[in-house]
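Hi there, hope your week has been kind to you so far. For a while now I've been wondering how a particular protein folds. I'm sending you its amino acid sequence along with the backbone structure tokens. Could you read through the record and tell me how the tokens relate to the sequence? Take your time with it, there's no hurry, and the full record follows here.
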Amino acid sequence: MTNWRPDNAQIAAGRLNGADMRGLALKGRDFRQADLSEADLSGADLREVNFWGADLSGAILNEANARLATFQGANLTGAQLTESNLWGANFKVARLNGAVLVRANMSQTELPGAQCDGANFSEANLWFAILRLASLKDANMGKVELASAKMEQAVLDGANLREADLSGANLRGASLIGVDFTAANLRDTRFREANLTRADFREANLEEATFDDALLDTTVMPDGTIEAGPLHFWPPD
């Protein structure tokens, strides 16, 4: 069932698979554990909406305003959130595998423990976001803004972070195997205890970045040299 326009009773019931909800004013509504799979919420007002545990797999939220919305434990696998406003939203332990969040405003968003493997965050704003213990394997994060983000123990193996801004971000204990940091801004980024095996830092800015107890193995540094040993700063003293 697709492209049907729900009435108020159907919205309240939360059985909205494939519903056409484009542009609806839904501020503050409660969709806890609702079925919104394949629903179209493009341009909808979703500010402060509670999507706790909801099924939003394959849903379309392009250009929606979901500022301060709660997506904790929600399933957003394959969802489309291009250019959506997700400022301060809560995505704790949510599933975002394969989701598209291109140019989304995710400043101060909380994503601890979220599953975001293969998601596309390119050019998104994640300033001051919390991504501790999040899984972002093979994610596209090219040109993303992650300044001052908290990413301790996150898993980003194989992720694309070309030209991303991670200045001041904390990646302590993160798994960064094979990550592409080409031309990224990593000024004052903390890589303490991170696994940087096969990471590529060519043309990246590593001024004041710290690598205490990090694992470097066939790691490509900004000047193209290969590093395979302990390192505190770059360039080394």
Observations:
- The helical segments are 8-13.
- The longest strand covers residues 219-220.
- The CA atoms of residues 6 and 19 lie 6 Å apart.
